C-alpha cells in the first residue's frame, strides 16, 4: 500500500497493457524500446521518457506537462517521445556558450557549440534551430520597437516622442500574436508540422516582455557613461536606453564580423550626438563595448562553474510518505499488504 491506496505491482509482459489508455515508459532506452510497440499495438498511447525514440522522424515529441492536449488528440496506438527536461544549469551553459561568438569572427562557431550542448540534453537540431530563429525574431522585433522613440526623436527633434512611445507599446502588445501566427504558418509545412509544437501565447508574451525589459536595463550602462561625460541625465535617458536597442538589433544578424563589432558601436555613437561631441559619443560607445565584454567574461565563467556542479535533485511534489509506510517497492518484494 502507498498511504491509503493499494497499488498493484504486476510482472511486465504483453498482456499487462490490455485495456490501458496511456502508458508512461520511464525506464532506460533499451527497456522502453522493447515494450513501446507491444503497448501501442494494444491501443495505448505510449509516452517514452527516455531517448529511445527521441529524434525519430516517425515519433512526435510531446511534453505531457506542456502540450498534453496534443497527446490527447493523437490516435490511440501511437508512440510519442517526451524530451528530457532542460535543467537550469544547462540553460546557463547554453547562454554562456554564445558569449565567445561576440569576439570570434562569425557567430556560427558559437551556434555550433550551442547546438552540441543542446544535443547532449536531448534537444534535436531542428528544435534548437527553431528556438534560435524565434529568439532572433524576438530580438529584432523588440529592438526595432523600443528604438522607435529614439529614431523618430533624432529625425524630428523630439517632437514625435509621445506618438512613437504609443506606437512602441502597441507594437509590443501585438508582437506575441504576430509570432504565434508565424509559428502556426511554419507548422503547416508537412515536414515540420509533426515535429514542432504550438507555442503557448503566454510563453510568447513572457519572452517578448522579458527581452524588452532586458534591453532597457542593459541600455542603462550607456546612459551612465554618457552622463559621466557631462550630458544632462534626463535628456540622455531616452536617447541612450532607446538607442541601445536598435543598435544591437541590426548588429545581431551580422555573421562576418564578431557579433557585429563595429556595427553596433557606429550606431550607438549616433544616439548621444545631440548631447555630446562626436569624439565623446564615440568614446562612450567604445567604453560600452568594454563594459559588455566584461559581463560576457563573467557570464561565461559562471556558466562554466555551474556546468561542473553536480545537479541538485528537484523538489518532489509527491505526498510525503509517513515513516513505516510500505512502498510499492516493498510490495513487489512481498513486504506490503
TrEMBL record:
Protein name, entry field: Semialdehyde dehydrogenase NAD-binding domain-containing protein
Pfam families attached to this UniProt entry: Semialdhyde_dh (PF01118)
UniProt superkingdom: Bacteria
Family of the protein in this entry: Belongs to the aspartate-semialdehyde dehydrogenase family.
Disordered: region residues: 309-337
Key words, A-Z: Membrane, Transmembrane, Transmembrane helix
Gene Ontology MF term list: NAD binding; oxidoreductase activity, acting on the aldehyde or oxo group of donors, NAD or NADP as acceptor
Annotated Semialdehyde dehydrogenase NAD-binding domain residues: 7-70
Iron recorded as keyword: no
InterPro entries: NAD(P)-bd_dom_sf, Semialdehyde_DH_NAD-bd
Spans through the membrane: 125-148, 160-186, 207-231
